[in-house]
Specification:
Blueprint (H helix, E strand, L loop, with lengths): L3 E6 L3 E6 L2 E6 L2 H13 L7 E5 L2 E5 L4 E2 L11 H15 L11 H17 L5 H11 L9 E3 L8 E4 L2 E5 L6 E3 L1 H9 L6 H8 L5 H21 L10 H6 L3
Antiparallel strand pairs: 1-2, 2-3, 3-5, 4-5, 6-8, 7-10, 8-9
Length: about 240
């Protein structure tokens, strides 16, 4: 019998791997609905849905290996990073999914509230929060919505021989800002941003990318710490915030 491996486990979601099958157990069925529909609509390689019996979704493993890991140097080639950029562009050029993404006003309110909690609870130094809140302002502007993955972490993009073999974890997909996807992919891996942009095939506003790096990190630090992850580890979210000082 194949070994059962816990990939991620917290109060909202648990993912198990048994051989080449991933079992995702999610308390929020709407989130799973989005994931299944987004994978069906996305014009890029995605995992095959094997079966679904709420609250469990079974998907097949994709070939290849992740582009990298936050906090660790990526061993992927510049060509692989460029291929990721090209895949993202293909997604962004696709028709919009039928469900909306996050509203700009809601995002700004969440950011203000989170910054206040980070300072009040002494999670981060006030000057670090204040500086990154100013940087994040660049991302808080109107954008033309595109089909976004919504959580395009480096561990969610798989490559083999410099080709994209699969993009996983689509539960945050929706209509959103194209530069958000590019920023999340390169969070903590700024040195690969030029390769991603080259593959994406168009100029981007670097100030907005920097804004999304700060915004995402500010919103994530406390949640990660409360769910068993370490945003203070070298190269992770707190280091991303410090790099903006």
């Amino acid at each position: 019998m194949d070994e059962v491996k816990v990939v991620v486990a917290h109060s909202e979601r648990t993912t198990l791997r048994v051989g080449d099958v991933f079992l995702k157990v999610d308390a929020d069925q709407a989130r799973i609905d989005v994931e299944v529909e987004a994978m069906a609509l996305a014009p890029v390689p995605t995992p095959k849905v094997l079966w679904r019996k709420p609250p469990v979704l079974a998907i097949a493993a994709v070939p290849g290996k992740a582009l990298g890991e936050l906090g660790e140097p990526s061993t992927a080639s510049p060509a692989a990073w460029a291929a990721a950029g090209a895949a993202i562009r293909k997604l962004h050029d696709a028709p919009l999914p039928p469900w909306p993404g996050r509203r700009l006003d809601d995002l700004a309110a969440d950011l203000d509230g989170e910054c206040e909690r980070l300072v009040t609870n002494a999670v981060l130094p006030a000057d670090l929060v204040t500086r990154n809140r100013r940087v994040a302002e660049a991302a808080l502007r109107p954008w033309t919505p595109v089909f976004t993955h919504g959580d395009l972490q480096i561990t969610h993009v798989f490559v083999d021989d410099d080709e994209i073999t699969g993009i996983i974890d689509w539960s945050d997909a929706g209509q959103g800002d194209a530069l958000f996807d590019l920023a999340i992919l390169t969070l903590g891996h700024e040195e690969h941003l030029d390769d991603v942009i080259a593959g994406y095939g168009t100029d981007v506003d670097l100030e907005v990318i920097h804004g999304w790096w700060s915004l995402r990190s500010l919103l994530a630090v406390r949640w990660l710490a409360e769910h068993g992850f370490d945003p203070f580890a070298p190269g992770c979210e707190v280091d991303v915030l410090r790099s903006r000082m």
